UniProtKB/TrEMBL annotation:
Keywords: Copper, Disulfide bond, Glycoprotein, Metal-binding, Monooxygenase, Oxidoreductase. It holds the Pfam family Cu2_monooxygen. GO terms for molecular function: copper ion binding; dopamine beta-monooxygenase activity. The keyword Protein transport does not apply. Belongs to the copper type II ascorbate-dependent monooxygenase family. InterPro entries: Cu2_ascorb_mOase-like_C, Cu2_ascorb_mOase_CS-1, Cu2_ascorb_mOase_N, Cu2_ascorb_mOase_N_sf, Cu2_monoox_C, DBH-like, DOH_DOMON, DOMON_domain. This is DOMON domain-containing protein.
């Protein structure tokens, strides 16, 4: 805790500072540091405002000072009704708050002459009166919009969020928004006239096999993205995202809004974006793509973990096939996860060596998802790897957290702005379905072969569409079923129960595909849903959890390259996690930091050694009993 205070009336104001840190007992006064590292530059006060300018080294080597780096930092502020007295800082009452911030790196700024330019235009893209009911915890709503009529190509130079009052508060209703370009001729038999009809409609639920028109699946290329706590972005002056023109320019866009309503509000929402564009075309066409972990139940974070990693890989099968020979240049990136996210980074690997991290945040705050503009553009060449690396904390959770769209589930994504624009909308990866189940010792399910199970995950299928029609005769006991295997499947589904599901309102687990797959092989797990199987695994044993984590991280990955043009087709590929030399940050010059790093490594190694010894001892005991005949 660092205190900047002032004394005296406005005409006699004098700014002073005290370098202090918080006490372990929250009720005690802050404790003054042995060294004072904050230095006042200037200050003034009038009848309404107090302003103080001060400086501090980024790294002070004071154990009570936080290093100021590229991580998200939280500023706590408070003020009293009266000037403080030395040694007494009471009386802040309700005048306090907190704000997350990125101290280092360039800031997105509107062009200096923007307000004076008559060529800068605005396009507001919003949903229309979406009704959020108290029963809706999570809702993804999509709205089709028609682009402005522009005969010549223009450039989008920036965008800002337009939020309703409820989403501008400390507990916003809108969690994130994305604006996508659409292709109107992606599917055979599609009616181009349907798009104008959809423009006039209020929209539909996103990602629904039943409620979302199939043609909307062509809306995959992001143009603008916003996450909770962010403001938007304005692009550097040498790039712009193309909009308008006659030659193949997108005429329709889709706005996707994710509503998070855990406090059961009843709201009428009309949030969206304000897009800023100009007829003065800049030097380079820019684009945006998404990279990371494919949203799927195969993304799994065990319960009770201080940190557990998932990675999404964009590999050479995509970068080598789609990137131009000179590569692309990344200018900004936004990292996106949900509530459990604690650390995120966008990594860059070339020729067996990891290059400096493109973006890294070891203090990630899911409530502050500001786009990160890079101080130096990063060139990514064909054949390079882009790895979105996410670490989660699930200490307070009792069951596994799965990948999904709700904030109670998880994501691991990077929204990347780059130039020159290419036909790449997204590059994702996931653990191959067969390898995912085999990691947990499961090899077969009732009434479905592994190919059918893979199709469920790869094509967002419905499990009932793939099961034989005789398997579930209205789920009624006593139905005529001849096949013995199907009889076993019915019995298993009727009897299988996941006793970890207690809360009635939590339907995510009950509706998960993993909770509908009944294990048949191996026999010791049979008649158990796969989700129930996951819940019974010994996640409290560190050695077991680390082995699962490393097996999935360094095992096989299936990558998907999503392109926005019909002229390009890139097949999915399964490959092993790349072997490379990890990028190592320059070590701290502060002696106490070196001691703390050594202590952390020693503690981790000791814990791992203890777990290994216990496991080896347990195996030796079993071996001895087996050899002596005393094992029962």
């Amino acid at each position: 805790m660092k205190l900047i205070t002032g004394t005296g009336k406005p005409a006699q104001f004098r700014a002073v500072s005290e370098d202090c840190h918080g006490s372990k007992d929250n009720h005690h006064m802050p404790v003054q540091d042995d060294t004072q590292n904050y230095h006042i530059e200037s200050g003034f006060q009038n009848l309404t405002h107090t302003s103080v300018t001060f400086r501090r080294a980024l790294e002070t080597c004071d154990p009570h000072d936080v290093i100021i780096g590229s991580d998200t930092m939280k500023i706590l502020w408070s003020y009293g009704d009266r000037d403080p007295v030395a040694g007494s800082l009471k009386g802040h009452s309700g005048n306090r708050g907190a704000r997350s911030i990125h101290f280092l790196g360039p800031m997105f700024r509107r062009p200096a002459d923007a307000l004076q330019r008559d060529d800068l235009r605005q396009w507001d893209v919003t949903v229309k009166n979406v009704s959020i009911d108290t029963s809706m915890d999570t809702l993804y709503w999509c709205k089709i919009l028609k682009a402005p009529t522009l005969r010549e190509k223009h450039h989008i130079i920036g965008y800002e969020a337009l939020l309703t009052k409820e989403s501008s508060t400390k507990q916003p209703l809108v969690h994130h928004m994305t604006l996508f370009e659409c292709s109107t001729n992606s599917y055979p038999g599609s009616d181009p006239n349907s798009w104008d009809v959809w423009v006039k409609s209020s929209g539909a639920v996103c990602n629904s096999n039943l409620l979302t028109p199939r043609d909307w699946d062509s809306c995959i290329t992001p143009v603008a993205t916003w996450g909770v706590g962010a403001s938007g972005q304005f692009l550097p002056e040498h790039i712009g995202i193309p909009i308008g023109g006659d030659k193949g320019a997108p005429k329709y866009y889709m706005l996707e809004v994710h509503y998070d309503n855990p406090r059961a509000k009843r709201v009428l929402d009309h949030s969206g974006f304000r897009i800023h564009y100009t007829r003065h075309v800049r030097k380079h066409d820019a684009g945006m793509m998404i990279s990371g972990v494919s949203v799927s139940d195969t993304q799994m974070i065990p319960p009770g973990q201080k940190l557990y990693r998932n990675v999404g890989i964009c590999g050479p099968s995509c970068t080598g096939a789609v990137f131009p020979a000179e590569g692309i240049n990344i200018v900004s990136a936004a990292l996106h996860s949900h509530v459990a996210g604690r650390k995120m980074k966008l990594r860059h690997v070339r020729d067996g060596k990891e290059l400096p991290r493109i973006v890294e945040d070891d203090n990630y705050n899911h409530n502050f998802q500001q786009v990160r503009q890079l101080e130096n553009e990063t060139s990514v060449l064909p054949g390079d790897y882009l790895i979105t690396d996410c670490a989660y904390e699930t200490v307070g959770r009792r069951r596994p957290t799965l990948g999904g769209y709700s904030t109670k589930q998880e994501m691991c994504l990077s929204f990347i702005t780059y130039y020159p624009k290419i036909e790449l909308a997204g590059c994702y990866s996931m653990t191959p379905v067969k390898e995912f189940f085999e990691t947990f010792g499961v090899f077969q399910f009732y009434a479905m072969n592994m190919t059918d199970v893979e199709n469920l995950f790869l094509y967002n299928g419905n499990i009932l569409d793939l099961l034989p029609t005789t398997v579930f005769p209205n789920f009624a006991p006593g139905g005529d079923v001849d096949d013995e295997q199907n009889q076993l499947a019915i019995k298993a589904l009727q009897n299988a129960k996941d006793y970890s599901i207690i809360d009635e309102e939590d339907l995510l687990y009950k509706e998960s595909i993993l909770n509908k797959l009944i294990i048949s092989d191996p026999v010791e797990f049979h008649d158990r849903t796969f989700l129930s199987h996951l819940n019974q695994l010994p996640w409290s044993e560190p050695l077991f959890t680390r082995r699962v984590e490393q097996s999935i991280l360094t095992g096989k990955h299936m990558t998907f390259c999503r392109v926005s043009s019909d002229s390009i087709s890139v097949a999915s590929e399964i490959f092993k996690y790349p072997v490379f030399d990890t990028f190592v940050k320059a070590p701290s010059q502060c002696p106490y930091h070196l001691f703390m790093e050594f202590a952390d490594h020693t503690s981790t190694a000791t814990k791992q050694m203890s777990s290994t010894k216990l496991l080896v001892l347990f195996l030796l005991i079993l071996y001895r009993r087996f050899c002596t005949g005393s094992y029962h």
